[in-house]
Automatic annotation (TrEMBL):
The keyword Transferase is annotated on this UniProt entry: no
Lineage summary: Eukaryota, Metazoa, Ecdysozoa, Arthropoda, Crustacea
Keyword annotations of the record: ATP-binding, Helicase, Hydrolase, Nucleotide-binding
InterPro entries from the UniProt entry: DEAD/DEAH_box_helicase_dom, Helicase_ATP-bd, P-loop_NTPase
SUPFAM superfamilies found in the cross-reference section: P-loop containing nucleoside triphosphate hydrolases
Name of the protein in its database record: DEAD(Asp-Glu-Ala-Asp) box polypeptide 39
Length: 130
């Protein structure tokens, strides 16, 4: 009944991801409500998104304050690839949290990071497209 795509622009920009999304889309009921969400929807990708929808309703919110949930903390650190694991564990040791979502670029990195977290006694599961 529903087809929901979060970070739709990112998933549709990459051709391999777009193919996966199209395959999943084709295997859902023809009559469905399609919802796509993105904080960074570019003008170039909008026509691709529209191909998944009939009579789309667009809602744009340019108020940055509304884009962050109350109580949610977001952290971004720009570092070299070989420093990422060390810095992640520094943050996990220093911050108080109930749960954490970590986004990575590949299935392989997802699987490896989940195993590394478990090895370091952090309960973790890998959620990916494969």
């Amino acid at each position: 009944k529903h087809f929901v795509l979060d970070e739709g622009d990112k998933m549709l920009e990459q051709l391999d991801m777009r193919r996966d999304v199209q395959e999943i889309f084709r295997n859902t009921p023809h009559e469905k409500q399609v919802m796509m969400f993105s904080a960074t929807l570019s003008k170039e990708i909008r026509p691709v998104c529209k191909k998944f929808m009939q009579y789309p309703m667009k809602i744009y919110d340019n108020d940055e304050a509304k884009l962050t949930l109350n109580g949610l903390q977001q952290h971004y650190v720009k570092i070299k690839e070989n420093e990422k694991n060390r810095k992640l564990f520094e943050l996990l040791d220093a911050l108080e949290f109930n749960q954490v979502v970590i986004f990575v670029k590949s299935v392989q990195r997802c699987m490896a990071l989940a195993q590394l977290l478990v090895d370091q006694n952090f309960p973790a599961i890998a959620i990916h497209r494969a």
